[in-house]
Amino acid sequence: MPRSMAPPPSNEFSIRLTKPFSQTPTSKIEIIGEPNRPATINDTNHVGAQNQTIIAKEGSISADDVNELLSLVRPLEGLPSNPDEDVYELDT
């Protein structure tokens, strides 16, 4: 009986930037894609007196820009993460 081969692991990545760290985020940017392919960018902003209005934008970036982005964030892989501070220990 032939054996079924599992699909190769996905190289999909998700990069999420939020601001500020120590409170409910008012600005979020998420980039989702795969290396050497175009990626999708989701930009979400919460505005208003109680951050009750949500403004969402969606876009895409080219494969060249994805590779450049990955080369910039790859050195950050494996760094300890803290939900309240960035890598410079600032709440920006």
Structural write-up:
This protein has 92 residues and is mainly β. Helix content is 12%, strand content 35%. It has a four-stranded antiparallel beta sheet. Strand 2 (27-33) and strand 3 form a beta hairpin. The N and C termini lie far apart (58 Å). The mean pLDDT is 80.
What is the compact description of this entry?
The chain has one helix and four strands, in the order ββββα. The protein is mainly beta. The radius of gyration is 17 Å and the shape is flat.
Please supply descriptive tags for the structure shown above:
92 residues; mainly beta; four-stranded antiparallel beta sheet; 1 helix; 4 strands
Low-confidence stretches: none
Oligomeric status? single chain
> Could you give the order of the helices and strands?
EEEEH
Name the helicity range: 10-25%
Order of neighbouring strands in the sheet with most strands: 1-2-3-4
Radius of gyration: 17 Å
Distance between the first and last residues' Cα: 58 Å
Secondary-structure-derived class: mainly beta
Binned strand content: 25-35%
The helix tally amounts to: 1
Number of E-type strands: 4
Shape: flat
Main pleated sheet: 4 strands, antiparallel
